[in-house]
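Quick check before the chapter quiz. The format below is the same one you will see on the exam, so make sure you can read both the input and the output lines.
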Amino acid sequence: MENFKSDNEIKLIALDMDGTLLNDQHEISEANRQAIKEAQENGIYVVLSTGRSLRKCEKHADSLALSSYLVTVNGSEIFDDKRGLVERNLVKSESIQWMVELTQKHKIRFWAISTNRNWFDEMPEDIHSEEWLKFGFNIKDEPTREKILKELQARGEFELSNSTPTNIEVNPAGINKAKGLTLVCERLGIDMKNVMAVGDSLNDLAMIEEAGLGIAMGNAQEIVKLAAAWVTTSNNEDGVAVAIRKWVL
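Here is the expected output.
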């Protein structure tokens, strides 16, 4: 793996946020900032590709002076460089209702993202009055997590991933970060083979597999490391900067 050579010129860097760009204090290190700044000065697009909503990633994008697209909520919403909405993919409110009932049955914690706000362990009085982008289960107990995963899979209408080993993230079927990046690339006239994607969790797996150069963080889940072309240092050791300096600058 150390000898992997990227034959494709990298024109776009796609970065996951939590566990990747951000350290455990949820901050962007100085080294990461500097490497991203130099990449942009070299004409390379830097795109945040995150499970977070626009509300939760906008400040970071601004602080990095990113002048590019944002792939948010695992690809459920995509925004252009002016923060105009390019695409939105919704989870049916009936499905959200069913998942909330599942959390009640198993007494587990959850969160959800609607087009209006982020919800944690609570829901609006009328679930059908909101447009839903993603649902998340927080399940520390492994047997319970496996059981819920099976129930979700059985419905056959969801894209299932995670952002930590103890959660399950639910998007509409076929919606993931790779699909979002493919759309961004089409609009920018770039091929996915010219993308370097960096991440740590299952919601990064598709983009790591489909990018020309997939990079796993040192703190990534094992399955993500196995799918990546190269493993960088951890999110607390400027792993993004290390990857950018090795493969791009």
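If your answer matched, good. The first strand starts at residue 12 and ends at 15.
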